[in-house]
Amino acid sequence: MKKVLEIMLVWLGGVVLMLGLLWCIGFGNTSKMNPLEMLLSLVLACFGAYVCYIMTVAVHEFGHLVAGKISGYGFLNYRLFSINICKYEDGFKIKRFGIPGTGGQCLMAPPEYNEGKYKYKLYLAGGNIATFILMVVELSVAIIVGVDMLPGRIGIVSAVIALYLLVLNGIPMKVSGVVNDSYNIINLGDNEELKKEFWDSLDINAKNHNGLEYSEMGIDFDAIEDDKLLENIEGISIQIKLAIKLNYLICTKQFEEAYSLCKKLLGKKEVVELYKCEFRCDKMFLEIMLGKEARVKKTYSESVKQYINKTHKYMLQRMRLMYAYYLLIEKDEAKALEEKKCFEKISPRYPDLGEIKSESKLMEYIEALHIQRIEEAKKEMSPVSEEVTNMEV
């Protein structure tokens, strides 16, 4: 029922916005238009909705940035769809990366953690505050100019779009499996332990962004009690922490431990769908590395294929996964080489420097494992070849 209501809300918003833009561009006379004029109005309506949506998302994420700076956070990454403006020690750079189901994101390094005084509410609420201000400004323009004028009508439609996104972010919910800002604020509440988990995830992300691998952060990931955290898995900060530990286990090649944790995470219905999709990909990779070929075929389902295709363009993990699949399972070196070239092309544009280092090492390990398995296969064949030779003699 939750999924149905989510889909209905998204589609209802889309229909309302489309009708509003047709009204805006057609000046209320769409019934008098010929088919060509109607088609042109529809195209302009779609374009107008997209422009208004981009503007609203940009303002929303800028609100997080301003609120974060006020709260003492440090700027890391401002993302609008797949375009990322990143800050590093040597300055600002433009990178490419996107997350399915999200229009933008503003990631920041948290201030030093002080128990009971950690500031997170303004940072998380900053996007909705900025969206509300934008909506008020757009309505004010519409009222001042008047709805009889095109700018006034555009102001109303833009305000409706802002209101729609404000509802999607203001009402605590999961949209396409991703929790919104209000959900995070309420979920953290006054729970000091959850707030510390949230701070940890932001701090680890900041270190990874600036070039540190998980093994270089001075964090004892092995001491994290999986079973204890799994009992409170509903909290998004707990899911993030376990996802980070899973990545640490994979990057440090602790594949058996990673596989065990991955299966436990996939067995929890509380895990948001976006993370489940990632965990399924991780499970497939781990099965490849552990030589569980029969299970790989089962895990590589149609839904997993669709998710891989959807995220392959920007995510290094997908290229690493498919490189391992083609090289170690399909034994198709040509396709594996394509994945390797794609990885090398995308890496310089990837925002997290630490992740680039970790994924590059895994790519090298996969190649070394491939060579090792070839050598082992040759050794297994050698006694047979010698026996045949002796029989011929």
Tell me the span between the first and last alpha carbons.
75 Å
Number of helices: 15
**Average pLDDT metric:** 87
Order of helices and strands: HHEEEEHHEEHHHHHHHHHHH
Structural class: alpha+beta
The low-pLDDT segments are none
Notes on the structure:
This protein has 393 residues and is α+β, with helices and mostly antiparallel strands. It contains 15 helices and 6 strands. The strands form 2 sheets. Strands 3-2-1-4 form a 4-stranded antiparallel sheet, sandwiched between helices. A two-stranded antiparallel sheet has the order 5-6. A hairpin with a 2-residue loop joins strand 2 and strand 3 (91-96). Helix 1 packs across helix 2, helix 3 (121-145) runs antiparallel to helix 5 and helix 6 runs parallel beside helix 8 (236-251). It starts with a helix and ends with a helix. The mean pLDDT is 87.
Brief account:
The protein has 393 residues and is α+β, with helices and mostly antiparallel strands. The protein has 15 helices and six strands. It has helices at residues 2-26, 35-70, 121-145, 150-170, 181-188, 192-209, 226-231, 236-251, 255-266, 273-289, 293-299, 302-311, 316-329, 333-346, 353-392; strands spanning 74-80, 83-88, 91-96, 104-109, 174-175, 178-179.
Helices and strands, with pairings:
Blueprint lengths: L1 H25 L8 H36 L3 E7 L2 E6 L2 E6 L7 E6 L11 H25 L4 H21 L3 E2 L2 E2 L1 H8 L3 H18 L16 H6 L4 H16 L3 H12 L6 H17 L3 H7 L2 H10 L4 H14 L3 H14 L6 H40 L1
Antiparallel strand pairs: 1-2, 1-4, 2-3, 5-6
Helix pairs in contact: 1-2, 1-4, 2-3, 2-4, 3-4, 3-5, 6-8, 8-9, 9-10, 10-11, 10-13, 13-14, 13-15
